[in-house]
Amino acid sequence: MANLVIDNVKKRYGETEILKGINISIKTGEFLILVGPSGCGKSTLMNSIAGLEDVSEGRILIADKDVTYTSPKDRDIAMVFQSYALYPNMTVEQNISFGLEMRKVPKEERDVEVQRVAELLQISHLLDRKPAQLSGGQRQRVAMGRALARRPQLYLFDEPLSNLDAKLRVEMRTEIKKLHKKLGTTIVYVTHDQIEAMTLADRIAVMKDGQVQQLGTPQEIYDNPANLFVAGFMGSPAMNFIPANVVEQNGTPMLELATSTTVALPFPKPESLKDYVGKTVLLGLRPEMITEPQPHKEGQPFVTTTDIEVEVTEPMGADTMILTRVNDAEINCRSNPMYPAAAGSIIKMMFDTSKAVVFDQESGKRLDV
Amino acid sequence: MSNKAVGRKTSGLDKALRVALYTVLLVVAAFYLMPFIVMLLTSLKDVEEIRTGTLLSLPATLNFESWSKAWSSACTGGSCGGISPYFMNSFQIVLPAVAISTLVGALNGYVISLWKFRGSDFFFAAMLVGCFIPFQVILLPMAQTLGWLGIANTTSGLVFVHVVYGIAFTTLFFRNFYQSIPGELVKAARLDGAGFFTIFYRIILPVSTPIIVVTVIWQFTQIWNDFLFGVAFSGFDTQPVTVALNNLVNTSFGGKEYNVDMAAAIIAALPTLAVYVFAGKYFVRGLTAGAVKG
């Protein structure tokens, strides 16, 4: 196990810059998730860490050793691939021990290691099978077993769960989390699934266009998105973005909201809106901050109750999503399923702006920092 | 029993059509087999019978004399040792040529598909052109080359010619097959610590059986049946069986011994026949596998 430092890494293919100076440093035993839309460069970054692709500029350090120009096999890294990449001609046992064999580990030690890994992942009964005889979930386990067997310094997971069906994916997600807790390994994990990112990561790096948009704990990223992109990418359903006019009331900038009536919402950091009075900003408000009126929150600062017109409701069991229109933007509200909200009716909803964020409409830059 | 219950009824017309279909098929099959049957029958008759009987008349007795003569004592040009030495020549040319061209093709395909480098697509395209070069075009330059290399008129020379000419095809076969192998397999093996040749030998080759069979059959048939390169580049002692067969048929003292000619021709065709019988099934399977995924 080791730490990993990615120092100003750039990657160019001819004129196109895929990675535009990535700086990430990961502590020993940390679980880092790279997340972002397809084409954001996360897989390229992963391949660069593994040494499967050369970087054009910058350095990569594993365990404080510069490995930028070291070949993949000497970096002491194991990788789990999206397609699992199991060797089709070998049994599960041979698949797991292949890496050890290549490193000239004696047969007895290999057998011991295979047994250990197989027990850990509960695949002991599959050791004699070929990959073609395994189900998707079993293949996934074998692929992880192959990575674990070598006890490398660093594990790379490249969208390992995206080929599994929804139920199995949730199961394996938990399993990976448990495994990480148990083994305390350093992991870099690529995914485009933001729920996976939220649930697994110690820290998340949100990437877009070859740049890290934000690097932080899942809660930081969720509560304090650095910009409009991060705010919109993390969270499901996504954060509501409401174009709102900044108006001044009693010397304090407020955000104007037009539903069936017009109200002005208070904002925790009014001073950041000073320069925007009379202009329009984007108010970011997560769905769970717009709820049915809750008595215990009544009277708290930054809580405003107003009327909205229900467009559609989407019952999800635990909550019901209410779609409505505010300032001409469609927004999602999360309410108690018991709260009466018929489509077309006008109901009271409570807007809690204590965790609201505001962005510049053009640049998408966060204003209240 | 339950199958019968759901079986559809066959009307008289259906039956008649079926009979007609099989009749047509049998006639066509017989038509295609005819030359071989005539060869076989003729080879079993003696010269007298051939002269008096018709093409299709059966031999009075099974007479294998012409076979042994064709094998060991018929005259081809100047020498009178049958075609057996040339038969062996052919094996000496075909076996190494097939082995080398298949191996090189496999390596080429492996590199072009799984170790792409700058210009590898162009390299492959250039290689493909080789599939469309007619034999005749390379005769003179190849003769020149063989002379420079000092292997003109030798078995090694012929092996060289067939390897060079065959690589375009074998590369194409293997490249198409390897296109269907995910690149992540190679990446995984590299991280596991395997090198270029280890990956090829331990991971790629073991899954290549279908395409190896296809390539071996293709190359074996091509090289065994080749006449032009054989006649152009072989020496007196290194002629392949196809050339010897030609010489045998064209060498006659007195009357033409059709029975010996036919026997020799069948002997010359036996190895390719055997290859098809034993591996034909894989051939079709492998060809489609390569074609569909390529």
Automatic annotation (TrEMBL), chain A:
One of its GO terms (biological process) is carbohydrate transport. GO terms for molecular function: ABC-type transporter activity; ATP binding; ATP hydrolysis activity. Residues 4-234 form the ABC transporter domain. Pfam families: ABC_tran, OB_MalK. PROSITE patterns: ABC_TRANSPORTER_1 (PS00211), ABC_TRANSPORTER_2 (PS50893). Keywords: ATP-binding, Nucleotide-binding, Transport. SMART domains: AAA. InterPro entries: AAA+_ATPase, ABC_transporter-like_ATP-bd, ABC_transporter-like_CS, ABC_transpr_MalK-like, ABC_transpr_MalK/UgpC-like, Mo/tungstate-bd_C_term_dom, NA-bd_OB-fold, OB_MalK-like. One of its GO terms (cellular component) is ATP-binding cassette (ABC) transporter complex, substrate-binding subunit-containing. Gene3D superfamilies: 2.40.50.100, Nucleic acid-binding proteins (2.40.50.140), P-loop containing nucleotide triphosphate hydrolases (3.40.50.300). This is Carbohydrate ABC transporter ATP-binding protein (CUT1 family).
UniProtKB/TrEMBL annotation, chain B:
It is found in: Cell membrane. It is a multi-pass membrane protein. The keyword Chloroplast does not apply. GO terms for cellular component: plasma membrane. Its main location: membrane. The chain crosses the membrane at residues 20-41, 93-115, 122-143, 155-178, 199-220, 262-284. Keywords: Membrane, Transmembrane, Transmembrane helix, Transport. Pfam families: BPD_transp_1. Residues 87-279 form the ABC transmembrane type-1 domain. The keyword Cytoplasm does not apply. GO terms for biological process: transmembrane transport. Belongs to the binding-protein-dependent transport system permease family. This is Carbohydrate ABC transporter membrane protein 2 (CUT1 family).
